[in-house]
Amino acid sequence: MIDLVNSAISKGAKLYSSISGGKDGQAMVKSLTNWGFTVEALVHADLGRIEWTESMMMCKKLQGEFDIPLYIGHRSDDRDLLDHWEDRLGKLAGTGKPFWSSAVNRYCTSDLKRGPINSFLRKCGHDFIISCEGVRAEESRARAKKNPLEIRWSITSAFYKGMTVEESIANFTSGKRLAITWYPIFNFSTEEVWSTYNMNSQLLSEAREYYRLNNSVPGWWPFHPAYAYGNDRVSCVFCILGSLNDLKVGARHRPGLLSDLIDMEIRGEATFKNNWSLQNLLQ
After folding, report:
1. Cβ-based neighbour number of residue 236 at 10 Å
2. Structure-derived torsion over alpha carbons of residues 29, 31, 34, 39, reported in degrees to the nearest 10
């Protein structure tokens, strides 16, 4: 895998790293730097009010730590995810169709993450691009089935149609955009992610206990504060794929946002998850 990436770089490929503020993107950037790769820019797709406010802070922290430019992407109409849900709520009123994102209809990812990132990559000034993402096989069975190095066909020239990753790299032609998605830490375990900053599960437990006792995150904790709050994963504060634990943490820290989403459930006559309402978090 690394040999293919190095072969692409020798032909002029430039690396860009997508980050959300969570541990995997942070560990990925640290690892790429440790391995001697040059990252042209960090790319964060901002979902707006649904995100932890600390996520932008973490992205800017990475920017400063590694002195890499940070690009913040938004939808072309500047709507955030809550705006998007509100728009769908109005358009689907009376149809019986849910307006929320779902595991099947993840337009939150396609419209507010992948779309803005692709828009940036199209305009970045290079026609050979490697887009790095912090996807790990350990996270889910679906992710484990992914190929850690694949052509990003949505922004790749039809010139490479039918080629494998290896063939496309070998046949790269200037002026014919070739974009490849790479998951550099695909085989990392969670412990290996923590270890990129000399942390581990025991230290995470200590950070959480410190937060419980002091209502503040210890200064030595280098990752997103939401992990110290109790989150197992960090994405949106309230994610349609989030665990009950993470949703409860979000409810404790963002009660106003929870109230707004419950109001949308009531007005749209559709629960946040299939047959599961955010009102359960009020109990």
Report:
1. 22
2. -30
Hey, what domains does the chain have and what are their CATH numbers?
A: 2-97+106-191 (3.40.50.620), 200-269 (no CATH)
Q: Could you give the CA distance from residue 227 to residue 138 in angstroms, rounded to a whole number?
A: 18
How far is residue 49's CA from residue 261's CA, in Å, rounded to a whole number? Answer: 11
From the CB of residue 64, how many other CB atoms can be counted at a distance below 10 Å? 9
Distance CA 100, CA 195 (A): 36
Least confident of 66-75, 98-107, 148-157: 98-107
Q: How far is CA 98 from the centre of its chain?
A: 24
Q: Write the single-letter amino acid at 181.
A: T
Question: What tens digit of pLDDT does each residue of 182-241 get?
Answer: 999 999 999 999 999 999 999 999 999 999 999 999 999 999 999 999 999 999 999 999
Q: Which of 80, 81, 98 is CA-nearest to residue 89?
A: 98
Convert the pLDDT of each residue in 2-36 to its tens digit: 899 999 999 999 999 999 999 999 999 999 999 99
Please give the single-letter amino acid code of residue 197: Y
Interatomic CA distance for residues 63 and 42, integer angstroms: 7
The residue written with tokens 């990925």 in the block is 28
Rounded to two decimals, what is the model's pTM? 0.94
